[in-house]
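call fold(seq) -> tokens
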Amino acid sequence: MAQCTVSAGHLSTPQIFISDEQIVLKADFQEAPTLTAGYFNWFVLAKGEDLVIEQLSTIAAFEVEKEGFFSIHSLAFSPEELDLKEIIFGETTVVDLAEMVLGVDGCSDFDFEGSDVELFGPTSLCGAYAGQLKADNAVCMDDSLAQISASEYLPAIVPDGFIQVFLLSTGDSSLITAVNEAPEFLVSQSDSFRIHSLVYDTASFKLDSLRFDSTTITQLNELLEQGEGDICASLDTTGVRLFPVNCLPECTAFAGSLISGEQDCLSDGTKAIHAQVDEPAVVPEGFLKTYLLTSGSDPVIRGMSNTPSFILEGEGAFTIHTLVYDSAFMSMDSVIVGQTKLEKLLGQLIQGGGDICGALDMEGASMELEDCPCEAQFGTLEPSDACLGERGAALEASVNTKAVVPENYQQLFILSFGDDLIVQEFSNEPYFEVEQAGRYRIHNLVYNPGSLPLGWIQFGQTSLNILNAFLIQGGGDICAALDVKGGLFVVEECQAELLSPKTYPNPVRDQLNVVLPENLDQKTIHVQLIDGLGNIRQTLEVDQPLEQINFDVSGLPEGWYSLRILYGTGRVGVSKVYISGS
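ret:
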């Protein structure tokens, strides 16, 4: 199968367009998709922590409610591979869709990570909009004081005559304790704080009407139109939460470093890759260490292991990384193999701008996965004489050259019929019984049942050539060895028994003398000299009466040969001779 080049791409953070009637989320591509013939690009809108799918669209723009968590995902798919009618709005989740895409036999792709935005609270009914804030880096208390701050996430709308200020609230009751022109405050206690944006009309609302340490965010909201009051203003009631804590000691976690190790070819056709520790990791008490396998230019996690070793199939470039993390704050359950990017894990750590103590070796140990040599080899067979009698014919072959059977591989013998090599039977020995005349062959197969199941073969219908097409020797990708030529049996009605020809000298080097049987009653006969692979090396046509003929064997390779006499439609008189070579 050709390598898939289809990609869903990745979207940037959605833009928000607000009017009195609607809110529209629109996203642009941060990483463009790649499509081929027969594939299309659609977009998915999901809502809530469970990422329940709400809408599908051919453009990355959706009308949404005024409050909630939303995410937009890109989908590249072929209708022949993926039926979008299976998606049930309000029920099917993004995880369900990702599993559907992974389950298809094709190239469809889904941007599971997507891009998300959270809308807090209603917008103003009079044109003002408080916008939304995002927390700046985590803060800690130093000498009982902490500077907390936020920055703009979604821009506010400040009409003429309006101003924007920022309120500080504390505790579960969101008690308003301070106001500032910028979203930053100096606090003196370790507690839960929120910073809220307020956009108001200075003609209808006076800030000094607020009683600090007495008025709550809820009480203020009730005075505004958005809270069913009569003052035109917009208040971000949820705000952004900050929680200063006592400063922690320096994070001592260290991922160390790895160097590339060896690649082992396993007997089942898979490969094991190993990395070695170059610089040991530092794992503080209560922390865990794991190893991650990634691939791609924007590394995607392909596996996790307690050791720097992984078992893989196929080819390509892979990298093994070390991760040291605090399991109390970071869980590997959120990692979806084949979907989660390494950069996303890094973003959770202090090392990558997050707030969790840990360490990730981003460079890792890289290695190229190569094809393993196929060590299986079939042996060659020497067919015996067989003719069709009252009880049928017994076909038996002897081994000329021994097969090579690697560990976990098996040897099997296959009987085929006719020039199309239609499979008739399997056997553990090169012996079969048939009941009709024709051309039969016994073939030797060396294979691994784990990588080459044979249950699909239908006796009397499947050609041996189809089986061969799955093997490396036949252009496929499965390691096995099949003697397609096999040992040939031409089964015909048994003739009256004739004497075998006599040969001398035996062994022979230069000239082989053949004494013909006395009871040949044909005017013309053919005498054949056949090598161990079934190839006819010499043929002499003899007119009767003639008692002796000669073969020049001086140029033939050393080994066992068969001498056969053919007359009429039968084959009789077989003798064995050993040619010692020159």
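Residues 94-103 form the longest helix (10 residues).
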